[in-house]
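As a warm-up, study this chain.
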Amino acid sequence: MKPFTFYKLLIFTSSFLLTNCFVLPESILKLKPDIEKTEWYKGKEIATIDNDSITIHISYDRNINQDYVFDVDVINNTQNPILIEPERFSYIMKKGSIKLGEVLKPVNAKDPELVILDLQKSYSLHQSNVETQSMFYSLGYFLQFVGQTKALLTNDQELSYQLEHQTYRLEQEQLINDAQNRRISETLFASSNFWEIIALRKTTLHPNDNISGKVFFSVNEFAKAVEFTFPVDKYDLKIIYNQTNISP
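Now compare it with the structure written out below.
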């Protein structure tokens, strides 16, 4: 093969691989409430849905990690306690594209209690793995010590050099794993705190009291309009949002 032809083939192959390895960025989804009267606060459009008993202020925040994120504030206007259960909140597509034969089903909000529990399980499992890994490293260092003792007693310089090299590699490997483990632990801990602090969680809401937090729904990129339903006590409050898909 001629050098010029070879380089052309190499450039073509490289271009093909780079093109097909490109990861598409996540689309930006804008949701706008389909009601006449809204208010704005720090760039967020706030819609209000209410009846004589319940008032809900809701504003779309953003889409992140394939989730819609909403800020929701619920006010109890009754004379009785009511139970707020965000996992019962849901939406259904009202307008958009669906696959042939696909049946539209409500999409429930993520249950913060289950998400937090899963994160706590992952953190506990990771800590167990870290301790097990530490035990293996301790065993490795002990075996290296036994080997070095034998090398000194037998004056085996070659064995001593090999063991020193193995010990150095073991130490470097441990440093890398320790750094990775710290990052994983910090991420899991931070994620759990994130959900515990900012998510709207299951709460008994007393008369004239309110509770607020973020609510997460899995996104539907093919929707043009979605209807959200907020079951609170014996009431179902609904609101439609129109969706615009913006490519980065």
